[in-house]
Structure formats: structure tokens, C-alpha cells
Design goal:
five-stranded antiparallel β-sheet, about 260 residues, disordered N terminus, alpha+beta, globular, about 30% strand
């Protein structure tokens, strides 16, 4: 997806040059099995990305409910874990309505536990104009990540700041059991004109941080910023997967240029 914002001033008066977002499934699966959900409100400048875990059922539906709800009801600065549970309540009800529990109990009982294991990461943010300053606010549970690039230089990342911070275990929001929910983290900073925001799921986020950590290497931000179409994104990810630089997982990316 590509949104070119030409002479468009968003409702919050922050000028955005462009917004691009892409999502593809694992190499051996079809797009209707992609468990990522990525959404953007280009007028209110609210974005959200959720990565549904593999190995569980109905994670695609749960991730979509999370991103849709965040765009409708984004968090506020002092949003607590208790607030998060209240926010998640209706999502869990909607998700449970999607799951055919009776059918699973009668025909595919082994899938009941797979459904109960359903979980996803969440990274949501918004950009506003506060006292003539561009303010970025981001909330996250898990390893879906955001990086800020300024003048082709890495400025900061959230919630994970290095490639070594990624692992096979991460905080998650759970569709069935709220006792297992990870901790909500919050970040805010001021943005400047021409800053590039890179929002991605763990596979691509780990790659760009690892590339930036090399003493001598490519500038990963340039490679990512050159991606303009879904076909270019598919080619880029395929090449990195073949080189074993990006793990073969559902992969989503958003590029937002201030």
C-alpha cells in the first residue's frame, strides 16, 4: 500500500510526505494465512501493527481486532496495564465469537488448545502537533518494533534497541487468558521534518538493527526507503530470506516520512 500526501495537511496539522506499508506471508504459505495486521489512519496519523504468533489458531483474527480497535480507540499517555485489560475486554469477546468452539469440541478437539494459545504482539502510535512541535507517542507489547532515522543516521528504536534483544520468546497479548499478558511499554519523542519512521515485525526489525550494528556495512534505511511497491517488497524479503538474513516468517513493514 502507498499513500502519497501531496500538499495534504492532516487534521492534526502535521505534514506528512509519504506513508507506505506492506505485508507478506511466509514463503510456503498463501496471503490468507498471514497472521500480521497492519493499519494506518492517514488523516489522524494513528498507526498500528500486530503480529499474531505461529503455532496457534485464530491469531489472524485476533491481530486484526487489535489493530482495528487501536485506530478507533488509541491509548493515552498515562495508559496503564489495568486500562489495557479494560480496552482488551471487548476484543476478547469478539474474538471468542469468531472461534467455532462447539465445532472444535466435536470434530477437532485438538484445536481447542491451539485456539486458547492465541496471542499477538501490538505496537501502536500516533503523531500530533503540540505547541508547534511534532510529537510521536508509541505503545508496545512484544517485539514489533519502531526505528527513527534522521539524515540517514539511526536515532533511536523502541521497544528493542539492538538485534541481540530479539529472541524466540517475547511479551504478548493473549486472546483467551489475560493472566499471560506481557507488560505495556510507552515511548515518546519529538520528530523533525524529513525524519523516517520504520515500523516492522520482528523479522525485518531484527535485520535492520543487525545491519546497522556492523562496523562496515550497508545503510539498511536506504534499502528500505527504496521500496515503493508490494512486488519490490516481496523481492527484497525473498532475497534476504535466501541469504538467511531474515527469518522466513510473516513480515510487515511501514515507512512513514515526516
Amino acid at each position: 500500500f502507498w499513500i502519497s500526501v501531496q500538499d495534504l495537511r492532516c487534521k492534526n496539522l502535521v505534514d506528512i510526505q509519504s506513508i507506505r506499508f506492506f505485508s507478506i506471508s511466509k514463503s510456503d504459505e498463501t496471503e490468507d494465512t498471514n497472521n500480521d495486521s497492519i493499519m494506518m489512519d492517514s488523516q489522524r496519523l494513528i498507526f498500528c501493527l500486530s503480529d499474531g504468533i505461529s503455532g496457534a489458531d485464530f491469531t489472524r483474527e485476533f491481530a486484526a481486532l487489535l489493530t482495528k480497535k487501536f485506530l478507533a480507540e488509541p491509548f493515552v499517555e498515562n495508559f496503564t496495564d489495568e486500562d489495557l485489560q479494560k480496552w482488551l475486554y471487548q476484543i476478547r469477546v469478539q474474538w471468542s465469537d469468531v472461534v467455532p468452539w462447539d465445532y472444535l469440541a466435536g470434530k477437532e478437539s485438538y484445536r481447542i488448545n491451539r485456539a486458547k494459545d492465541c496471542a499477538a504482539t501490538l505496537l501502536g502510535g500516533k503523531i500530533t502537533l503540540e505547541k508547534k512541535k511534532i510529537l510521536l507517542q508509541v505503545w508496545a507489547v512484544g517485539d514489533t518494533n519502531l526505528a527513527i532515522i534522521r539524515n540517514l543516521e539511526f536515532l533511536d528504536a523502541f521497544p528493542l534497541k539492538s538485534s541481540q534483544s530479539f529472541s524466540s520468546i517475547t511479551d504478548l497479548l493473549n486472546a483467551y487468558n489475560d493472566d499471560k499478558d506481557g507488560k505495556l511499554q510507552y515511548y515518546q519523542t519529538e520528530l523533525l521534518k524529513n525524519d523516517l519512521l520504520i515500523i516492522g515485525t520482528d523479522a525485518i526489525s531484527r535485520w535492520y538493527l543487525a545491519e546497522d550494528e556492523k562496523e562496515i556495512g550497508s545503510v539498511p534505511w536506504t534499502e528500505l526507503d527504496e521500496i515503493k511497491t508490494i512486488n519490490e517488497f516481496k523481492k527484497f524479503v525473498s532475497e534476504k530470506r535466501n541469504l538467511r538474513q531474515i527469518k522466513d516468517d510473516d513480515t510487515s513493514l511501514m515507512l512513514l516520512r515526516i
